[in-house]
Amino acid sequence: MSLILETTDTAQLQRDWRRGYESQPEEHSYWIDEIEGQIPPDLHGTLFRNGPGLLDVNGQPIHHPFDGDGLVSSFAFANGRCHYRSRFVQTEGYRAERAAGKILYRGVFGTQRPGGWLANMLDLGLKNVANTNVIYWGGKLLALWEAAEPYRLDPATLETLGLDRLEGLLQPGDAFAAHVHVDPFCHWDGGASCLVNFAVKPGLNTRLNLFEFDQAGRLLRHQKFELGGFAFIHDMAITPNYAIFFQNPVGYNPLPYALGWRGAGQCLVSQPGKATRILVLPRHPSLGEARVFTTESGFVWHHANAFEVGDELVVDSIWYDSYIGIDPETDFRKIEFGGLPPGQLARTTINMRTGATERRFFDTRCCEFPVLHPAKVGRDYRYVYMAAADGPRGNAPLQAVWKFDLATGQQQVWSTAPRGFADEPIFVPRPRSAEVAGAVTPDVGDPQANARPDEDDGWLLTLVYDGARHRSQLVILDARGLERGPLAVLHLKQHLPHGLHGSFTSRYFGPDV
Ligand code: CO
Description:
Blueprint: H1 2-19, E1 28-31, E2 34-37, E3 45-49, E4 56-57, E5 60-61, E6 71-78, E7 81-88, H2 92-100, H3 119-122, E8 133-137, E9 140-144, E10 151-153, E11 160-163, E12 181-183, E13 194-201, E14 205-213, E15 219-228, E16 237-238, E17 242-247, E18 250-252, H4 255-258, E19 268-270, E20 276-282, E21 291-295, E22 299-309, E23 312-320, E24 344-351, E25 357-361, E26 367-371, E27 383-388, E28 400-405, E29 411-415, E30 420-422, E31 426-429, E32 458-466, E33 471-478, E34 488-491, E35 502-505
Antiparallel strand pairs: 1-7, 2-34, 3-6, 3-35, 4-5, 6-7, 8-9, 9-10, 10-11, 12-13, 13-14, 14-15, 16-17, 17-20, 18-19, 20-21, 22-23, 23-24, 24-25, 26-27, 27-28, 28-29, 30-32, 31-32, 32-33, 33-34
The protein binds cobalt (II) ion.
């Protein structure tokens, strides 16, 4: 009996999850008026989100959500109200395919027609879908996709202003990663915050650029490194002195792509059992050479945070047993969650003096999209927040927001199960004075930050796809008490497909109020 019940529930869960990947071709702009609870009156600023908006072109399905055209949303908060807006990034590919009414490009992750993020290496065409992240920095709103230049958007209207080559720093087609990190207190810059990002050009000898920008968006530091061998790198972690990259055991066989059999991203070959290389790159030339360490096999998309303790570096990440691709014969909509390895939170400690490394898992819960208080980036910290599975073990869709106390192992879960699905949460500190709030434009730089006892004094903002209504919600949780339930649920008039990343700025970009 219980087995039948479980099967039915699993089928319903799979149906709901799949519907959350229906395209949202419409753009919207309205004040959100269907609200349960109350928006905190001191929540002031704008949450930007990015993710695939189209999972098909005129009814032709794309092969993988990572190939979907970027649909950017903004939630502008002021005086206890919230204005919502969404627009597609008007990329060259989006406009061309809309005009043609059919798929014109091969996607990196298997959609057929020319394209692909490793395409620079192969000198083939490439579709920049601008769908992975969106950040406000130096007065610019940028939609990011890791294998090509950012698209600049108007932060108030979300109108696309065009490709942005960062004052000539990027050449046409150059990569610029989607995972920027803000150092809240940079000791080379008098304690000002700075934006750190990287660009990977994969190849037999992968080249990596490390960029740092000041608050006005001006380039502060630019370093170039060569990594031995092929590297597939999506994210990094930073500390006050280092940028840390995991070179997981993944190889690349370009032939099926060159021959048109597979998307570039489908030519990644997992090498289970082989060690992970940890690349520790100095953020300033005065710190000497890059160093390489090794640790356990596995695969990491995202790091939660890193920090320095004496001779040791500590890096918290979401680890998988190995890289899992989607082969050309498989429809991602039919993936069976139970058959795949879960992502799990683990801490890697690197002794820079002895070279010894150690990896230790915190918990079994399946999770992704780790975030933290913006003032703790690169510093010893206590709380990490993630999107997570409803249950404590096994691979499953992300249906909950999970708070984990790294000091005590205590945890809090707020779940949207059985029919909800949670995106990446964003932590917004509660403003205590004019200088606070904002993940990307913070003047939160504060050497005393580590001593603050109130690291979880703020809100978690997360998008939830509600399978029962086929609509999405923005949920506001008190980061100190997830289990008390949301402070507010803001119901959108439409659904948004399961999304990727976003950021918060303390600037308000809604209509005049
Ligand atoms: Co990511």
